[in-house]
Amino acid sequence: MPVRKEIPCQEGLFFITFTCFKWLPLLDFTNSYDLVYGWFDYLKKQNHRVAGYVIMPNHLHVLIDFSATAKKINTIIGDGKRFMAYEIIQRLQRAGKTDLLMMLEKAVAAKRKEKGKLHEVWEESFDWKICETAEFTYQKLIYIHNNPCSGKWELVEDITKYEHSSARFYITGKHAGYMVTDVEVILSGRYAADELSKKKEKNR
């Protein structure tokens, strides 16, 4: 996946991943799943659509359909990370996690400290892939949904039982932690628009 690379367009369906600093389970430590849902709500208010997601203890994967926007997609994601980071630090402070806070503070590079950054909550970069075909989109959706049962995690035996994932919706039709937009709706709308555009080109 591209790392530290600017997304070269202002709309489209994207597979996005970002990770807690040093893969620390900060989302789980602070029970901050609600912060991610709050960011999703903000995206919806800006006319973007969340098509699929999984929130793991130390990272998240999400399929976002960005509508045309004057703000760069990298900026939208960066703003979301900053909002969540601030709240995560607040929760760590209230929980008295002094050692962890000190470690996150020491991790901030000098140049970033000069810009006012106090703690390193997320890895600096995020990963992304543009979903240009239905096949690739569903491949990423399956990958997202299998996360809680893959590798070292084994958080649940049945992916529909993991609360912080859209797997339940795509398999049973019932939403879990957050209501998403069916990726089929997004893809059918995009393909219909593409076909209309092609017809217009032919008629010129």
What is the structure about, briefly put?
The chain is an alpha+beta fold and 204 residues long. 46% of the residues lie in helices and 13% in strands.
Outline the secondary-structure elements.
Elements: E1 12-19, H1 26-29, H2 33-45, E2 49-55, E3 59-66, H3 73-94, H4 98-106, H5 110-114, E4 127-130, H6 134-146, H7 167-172, H8 183-203
Antiparallel strand pairs: 1-3, 1-4, 2-3
Account of the 3D structure:
This protein has 204 residues and is of the alpha+beta class. The protein has a single domain (12-203), classed as Transposase IS200-like (Alpha-Beta Plaits), CATH 3.30.70. The protein is 46% helix and 13% strand. The protein has helices at residues 26-29, 33-45, 73-94, 98-106, 110-114, 134-146, 167-172, 183-203; strands at residues 12-19, 49-55, 59-66, 127-130. It has a four-stranded antiparallel beta sheet, sandwiched between helices. A hairpin with a 3-residue loop joins strand 2 (49-55) and strand 3. The longest helix is centred in the middle third of the chain and has 22 residues, at 73-94. The radius of gyration is 18 Å and the shape is globular. It starts with 11 loop residues before the first strand and ends with a helix.
